[in-house]
Amino acid sequence: MTDTAPRPTLEAVAARAGVSRATVSRVVNGGDGVREALVTRVRRAVEELGYVPNQAARSLVTRRHDAVAVVIAEPETRVFADPFFALQLRGISKELTAHDNQLVLLLTEGRDDHVRVGRYLAGGHVDGALVFSLHLDDPLPGLIQHAGVPTVFGGRPGWSESGGDAVFVDSDNRGGAREAVRHLVGLGRSRVAHITGPLDQTSAADRLEGFRDVMPDADPRLVEESDFTPAGGERAMRELLDRRPDVDAVFAANDLSAAGALRVLRERGRRVPEDVAVIGFDDMLPVAEQTDPPLTTVRQDIEGMGRLMARLLLDRLGHRTAEGAEGAPSSVVLPTTLVRRASA
Amino acid sequence: MTDTAPRPTLEAVAARAGVSRATVSRVVNGGDGVREALVTRVRRAVEELGYVPNQAARSLVTRRHDAVAVVIAEPETRVFADPFFALQLRGISKELTAHDNQLVLLLTEGRDDHVRVGRYLAGGHVDGALVFSLHLDDPLPGLIQHAGVPTVFGGRPGWSESGGDAVFVDSDNRGGAREAVRHLVGLGRSRVAHITGPLDQTSAADRLEGFRDVMPDADPRLVEESDFTPAGGERAMRELLDRRPDVDAVFAANDLSAAGALRVLRERGRRVPEDVAVIGFDDMLPVAEQTDPPLTTVRQDIEGMGRLMARLLLDRLGHRTAEGAEGAPSSVVLPTTLVRRASA
């Protein structure tokens, strides 16, 4: 455990690989312009010797850590329970790895820990941050701003209608919700209910707006706030059936809560879609395909959003300028598509 | 996104909270010896002002980051697919948070990225590291040693019988496996098969040893190497049934592969436990309770192991000496227990 052996030097790696010091340095710093065969030889020598570049010295020169923090503003238990986050992280991980940046996931037990996260971000350990699943009264955006770390948000931040000058990647939540509810109306349904997400998140609030765009005069008892979880979807569906037993369609704000709603509908003897048509949001696989019946839903490309967030941040940090990025990156709102399966 | 506003100072926080500068400093640095009511007032002022302590200056004095890296030597897709890791991280997260340390999870796409992880660890961004799910020929242990970061391992590292001078937390894998196989023999079963984990991991190799302790003369066709996944368990069970249709018991090296084996046994018309008795390893909930039939298994306290790893590391770093830790921490091997349900 004690580090008694001297650290192997760049020279030792060069000697072992049979290449010049400059070649080792280029490989260690990204490998641009070095032949694949040489890269492989140098990497093997690095592994064999356990060579670690002197990061502190390197950082002083480049002022770069080649590391990006990811902050999901949810307790770690939720991060691991909701496949949405795993998918978004998959996209981020692929993109960062393709540019040899380390993904630094900062986990917390909840909002009380966000001051500590702000401290870590301010500590000069990462070049930038990707932040998602923000809630309206979270201190994190302020802490990040004071930390002075370039940041790209997943989902429009809630502190202003347009997201202020924040750079973010989002789906067209309002437009997607409108398309879902219009589809239900097109099926001849008139008592359409909405199971929302947590309304302190813009994604959930925007989907509710989309619902209201199509159903401006909906009975308030047809809207039930929920929390994006299967258990929350079950609770909301029970509540809706008790209040309005004549409900003939449900738009759920995500697939997980739609799956919960489907279970309750079956339990109460309602046929889907004959008695009640159901639409979700996400097209999260395999969830959306494995519900009974398979779920009609609004597709957003979750992994692709993660990839795009990472790409925008790397552009900002100047990692990708060679590949044709130009000017300051701006926010991106991606279109959604309705995917028809059996439930509506 | 740009950081134009000046950073709020310690003095500003003190003024807002109506306390002394020293009190703010004590709260920001851990809160020891400050009354709860004052702590709350200071924390509120910190949040309202978006105050971030000058970490660089603080680190120079304390040489501490109050951050611990967690490295799981598996691709991020597996980290999020196997609930084992979520449970271990839960224990780690709770313990680190209780001592106001930031959990820094370093995710990778696979072993090729471990040189980059070593670089980050060597870069002075964390005080220590928790490393688990090592495979035998992984360069990570060497890279970590050269990085000079105090480390505690989850699972005995594979580079020597005793783990060398590495500090690790492990379960009694061999003893637990022996108890499982003895239980099957005690049920009168004589054709006991073993579905192993990946044998380049000590946990899997040790469980195979435990199987052999009890069944030294087992037909080699009754042992099938697998990979700790449900799909791997299915493949292994098919293979075993094809080779030895008379198999009357299976010890699977973890619950996920046992769940896969149960599905194949049902598909092939074998009754469990009447025709084939099945035992798993982990007692991972809810998996072990939700199999059909519910799974008899060897229980290890996965969350508790994560907690203990974090505790040993914090002891080493001197965070917990006030609580009675003494001397250098040493490795811990925890006992296992057989949990009987319906499958054996």
Automatic annotation (TrEMBL), chains A, B:
Keyword terms of this UniProt record: DNA-binding, Transcription, Transcription regulation
Keyword flag Nuclease: no
GO molecular function terms attached to this record: DNA binding
Any single Pfam family the record assigns to this protein: LacI
HTH lacI-type domain residues: 8-62
Taxonomy, superkingdom: Bacteria
Protein name: LacI family DNA-binding transcriptional regulator
Organism: Streptomyces gilvifuscus
